């Protein structure tokens, strides 16, 4: 991975992590009062918080690994740069998959999704994860 590509990946991941934090804040501001008054399912609320926390931290870890892969010169060799890049790709995939799952969980709080809708929102990230493993990374 080139230095420019790794640096741009770091910048993109900062914005994705910020988006995750914004969604997390939205959930706490608007859904926590409903959770406190037992208007929403407590188990579903906690699962949604965990999903958003893991998504946010996976974007942060991906950003760290992409930054590590952008270090040039004599600091790390090419094999280690490729390993950092692959780890960053894995964390990015985990964060993106969980970020796709989160809107369905939030809508499930409001019972705005029909039963088939929840299935569709759960299957889409799984489909993305399955097909992204077929994407080849150029050396």
Task: Describe the protein in words.
The chain has one domain (3-132). With 139 residues, the chain is an all-alpha fold. It is built from four helices and no strands.
What is this structure, in a nutshell?
The protein has 4 helices and no strands. The protein is mainly α and 139 residues long.
Task: Kindly list the characteristics that best describe this protein.
single chain; 139 residues; 0% strand; mainly alpha; 4 helices
The proportion of strand residues reads under 5%
Structural class: mainly alpha
Oligomeric state, counting identical vs distinct chains = single chain
Per DSSP, the total helix count is: 4
The general outline is elongated
Radius of gyration: 18 Å
Find the count of extended strands (DSSP E, 2+ residues). Answer: 0
Instruction: Please write the string of helix (H) and strand (E) elements.
Output: HHHH
Query: Helix share of residues?
Result: over 70%
| N-to-C span | 7 Å
Number of domains: 1
Biggest β-sheet strands, sense, barrel? none
Quick check: average pLDDT?
76
Poorly predicted runs = none
